[in-house]
Structure formats: C-alpha cells, structure tokens
Write a structure and sequence with these properties.
With 279 residues, this protein is an alpha/beta fold. The protein is 43% helix and 19% strand.
C-alpha cells in the first residue's frame, strides 16, 4: 500500500498547523493506541459486512480504510479539512475500496445525512476537541435504533493529586497551542454521563493500553527508507525554524505525560466508550 502524500516541497512553516503538517509528512493517523485500538473499537461496535458506518474526523482515512478492508462494511468518512479528504479519497482508490468507502467534507455539528441513516458512528481522538453535549445529539440523530456510538478518546482520572494536576495541565495547554484547537478532556465518569445524556444506553468503557510499535509505524508510513526520510525532514524543519520548533515541541510532551512519566500516567490515558441508541 503506497503512501498517500509525497514529501512536501516549499511550505510556510510559520503558518502550517500540526495536523496539516503531519498529513503532508504522510503520518496516517493520530489517535491513541494505533491500529490495535482501531481493530478493538471495530470489534466492540460489532462492525461486519452488513454495517453502515460513519467515521467523523476521518483525517486521511487510514483507520477508516483499514476497518472497511477488514470487515467489508460500507463506510463514509467526513472531515472538516478539504486536504485531509483529498488524501483519504486517494487512499481509498489506492487500496481498491471505492465500492466500500466514501469520503466527503463535513461538519460534525451539522452532519449532511438523514435521521437514522447509520448503524455505527465512531470517532478517534476527535470528540475531545468538540462540544460533547451538542455534537453527541447530532451523532445520535443519524444513528438507527439499536445503532452504536463508539469513541476512542483521552480521559483524566476522576481524582488527581494536587501535585500531579499542574503537570498534566501544562502538557495539555502546550498541545492545545501546537494544534491550534481547544482540547477538553473529560474524566471516565464524565464520558459515561455524556453518553447517557445523549440518550444512549448499554454504555461500556475499556481502557486503551496498546502501544505503538516501530514495525507498525514503518509499515503504515511506507517502509523503512520513507520513514527515515520523514524523520530527516522533520528534524530539518525543527532545526531551521525556531518558531515552528517551539510550536511543535509540546506534541511529544503530551505523550510523555500519558505514557512515559510514572508520576502522571496513572491519572490520564485513553478509553474506548461505546453506547447504544434505544430501539
């Protein structure tokens, strides 16, 4: 499977946002837990070849195409970024999934679909950037009776020690500045409340404890040499543009807080939350 994006030429690093930059680098997905998390959420949502799936915030379509390829479902992905959709459409063509997958621009708060049109709606590292009460009402609207909503998103512990909370908050503030989007991370119990208030039942939660593997990264980014080229290009961009480096450095800090820092990692993480619309 070839990479969707070519290595970029001249770009204005002072203006480009993190997600657009990552997409031009060929980074195929941004959610926690990598492909194992995508496979697990598809399993929990019971996606099969008869399932009609909507992925909100599909990005360049890697997870969406993988789910469609593995399950045979009919899937539509929407994203607010036209550039992301172009990449996703190209990926679907390269993977030979034109009969199963469709990508289009769309706004999560006003989905261009009829009521009760989908069996499953899912997001991966998207709902933390949205106004949950408002957007979940829209998500539920397009679900059929007995349809399922599933999210793979970050969470905070219900109780965080006073000496730990500032470290997590600083990491989140830096990440927010880097991506240029407001991020608001609920606790585990708050995620369940959002689902319940949207009218969903049979709510389940599962901690995401999967890790990224170097083999997975290499394969999804087009092989060893392409990965090395991307690393070299990012290193050059960071070294040659101080403002860009300052904006992008906090991205790695969030990962450190959630995974590597022994003091903080028990108080933040990722969760798959699934709920069902009443019949």
């Amino acid at each position: 499977m070839s990479a969707v994006y070519e290595m970029p030429g001249n770009r204005n690093l002072d203006e480009i946002g993190y997600y657009d930059y990552a997409a031009t680098m060929g980074i195929p997905y941004f959610h926690w837990g990598g492909l194992s998390a995508s496979d697990r959420i598809a399993e929990l949502l019971a996606i099969n070849n008869n399932t009609r799936v909507l992925v909100v915030g599909c990005g360049t379509g890697y997870s969406a195409c993988r789910i469609a390829k593995n399950t045979g479902c009919h899937l539509i992905g929407v994203d607010i970024s036209a550039e992301m959709i172009k990449g996703a459409q190209k990926r679907a063509t390269e993977w030979g999934l034109e009969d199963h997958v469709e990508f289009r621009e769309g706004n999560a708060y006003k989905l261009d679909f009829h009521d009760a049109e989908f069996d499953v709606l899912m997001t991966e590292f998207v709902s933390v950037f949205l106004e949950r009460p408002r957007v979940f009402r829209e998500f539920v609207r397009v679900l059929r009776p007995d349809g399922k909503l599933g999210v793979n998103e970050l969470f905070l512990a219900d109780e965080i020690p006073a000496e730990v909370r500032p470290k997590i908050e600083r990491a989140l503030e830096g990440f927010e500045q880097a991506v240029g989007l407001p991020i608001n991370i609920p606790t585990m119990s708050e995620w369940k409340t959002y689902f319940a208030e949207a009218g969903l039942g049979s709510i389940s939660q599962e901690i995401v404890d999967y890790k990224y593997r170097i083999r997975e990264t290499k394969n999804t980014m087009g092989g060893t040499w392409r990965l090395l080229r991307i690393i070299g290009r990012v290193t050059w961009d960071m070294a040659s543009n101080g403002d860009f480096r300052r904006r992008m450095t906090p991205i790695g800090r969030l990962s450190g807080v959630l995974v590597r820092n022994r003091e903080t990692r028990g108080y933040a993480g990722a969760v798959i939350c699934v709920g069902t619309k009443p019949a």
